[in-house]
């Protein structure tokens, strides 16, 4: 499976923070925002990833992540000149996807919960069409909302409905088979001239090939489109990390645990950040991994 991170847009709601920076470069407590969606793709076992951003911001991601080799990944870059809808990602990334399946994640989303890697890998392994991830919210009328049966099959999909049929909001994480490229090519743009991801999902729904996985109790889903939500996400990460002693979305640790890099490579990455708590943490993670492997 291939991965795509959509890290475009101008971040207008976060100005003046985004006057010269990409939103996805902003810090969420102790690491750049893009580490959070990147770690999700890695936890799903995905190593071939395309980052889509604007021309003015692409260089920032290249400087931060390079080609991904340090994390055992292959990271490429593509440009989205205008924010023409989430579904345009499949046209921009058509060559990247090829005949493979693809996971698309929005660059300003945080997902965190117990056993998330297993949940992701299980759904990647049984993908047949489209799999969405739903999260229960108190105000579903503000979101795209999915209705499912007891088996998780998607029954209906509504965008900001006045009378929601469920409380499951559609999150910014999507799994598709390779048909998604042709589906996106045949979409009719909305009145705003955008290719809507909801229309892609409805196409799979009409084919009877759409599922939704509920991320329920114990999971957190946060997006960071406003100053308030950005602060809340940072506070969430801070509280959990300080209480549990483990870092959320530490991409180097994820790479080690997934077998993408070795303990020595993780230790070397830690030495490159010597003097910081983050670097010391990587060194300790590498040591613990070696000790548990030897036991």
SSE diagram, text form:
Layout: E1 2-6, E2 27-28, E3 31-32, H1 35-43, E4 48-53, H2 55-65, E5 74-79, H3 88-92, H4 94-97, E6 102-106, E7 109-112, H5 116-125, E8 130-136, E9 144-148, E10 154-159, E11 168-176, H6 179-185, H7 197-206, E12 210-214, E13 220-223, H8 227-244, H9 251-257, H10 263-272, H11 277-294
Parallel strand pairs: 1-4, 1-6, 4-5, 8-12
Antiparallel strand pairs: 2-3, 6-11, 7-13, 8-11, 9-10, 9-11
Helix pairs in contact: 9-10, 9-11, 10-11
Description:
This protein has 295 residues and is α/β, with parallel strands linked by helices. It has one domain (2-244): Spore Coat Polysaccharide Biosynthesis Protein SpsA, Chain A. It is built from eleven helices and 13 strands. The chain has helices spanning 35-43, 55-65, 88-92, 94-97, 116-125, 179-185, 197-206, 227-244, 251-257, 263-272, 277-294; strands at residues 2-6, 27-28, 31-32, 48-53, 74-79, 102-106, 109-112, 130-136, 144-148, 154-159, 168-176, 210-214, 220-223. Strands 1, 4, 5, 6, 8, 9, 10, 11 and 12 form a nine-stranded mixed beta sheet that branches. It has a two-stranded antiparallel sheet with strand order 2-3. The chain has a two-stranded antiparallel sheet with strand order 7-13. α9 runs parallel beside α11. The chain is globular and about 50 Å long.
């Amino acid at each position: 499976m291939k991965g795509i991170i959509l890290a475009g847009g101008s971040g207008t709601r976060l100005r003046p923070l985004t006057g010269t920076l990409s939103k996805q470069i902003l810090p969420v407590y102790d690491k750049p925002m893009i580490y959070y969606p990147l770690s999700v793709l890695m936890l799903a076992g995905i190593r071939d990833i395309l980052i889509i951003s604007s021309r003015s911001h692409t260089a920032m991601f290249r400087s931060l992540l390079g080609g991904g080799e340090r994390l055992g990944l292959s990271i490429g870059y593509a440009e989205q000149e205008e924010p023409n809808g989430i579904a345009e990602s499949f046209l921009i990334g058509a060559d990247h996807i090829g005949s493979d399946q693809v996971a698309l994640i929005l660059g300003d989303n945080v997902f965190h919960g117990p056993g998330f890697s297993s949940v992701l890998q299980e759904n990647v392994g049984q993908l047949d069409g489209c799999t969405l991830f739903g999260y229960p919210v108190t105000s579903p009328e503000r979101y795209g909302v999915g209705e499912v049966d007891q088996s998780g099959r998607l029954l209906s999909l509504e965008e900001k409905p006045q009378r929601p049929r469920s409380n499951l909001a559609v999150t910014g994480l999507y799994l598709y088979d390779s048909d998604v490229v042709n589906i996106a090519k045949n979409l009719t743009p909305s009145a705003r001239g955008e290719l809507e991801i909801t229309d892609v999902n409805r196409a799979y729904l009409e084919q009877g090939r759409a599922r939704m996985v509920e991320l329920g109790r114990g999971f957190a889903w946060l997006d960071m489109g406003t100053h308030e939500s950005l602060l809340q996400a940072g506070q969430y990460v801070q509280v959990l990390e300080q209480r549990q002693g483990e870092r959320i979305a530490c991409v180097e640790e994820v790479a080690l645990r997934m077998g993408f890099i070795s303990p020595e490579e993780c230790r070397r990455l830690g030495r490159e950040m010597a003097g910081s708590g983050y670097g010391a943490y990587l060194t300790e993670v590498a040591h613990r991994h070696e000790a548990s492997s030897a036991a």
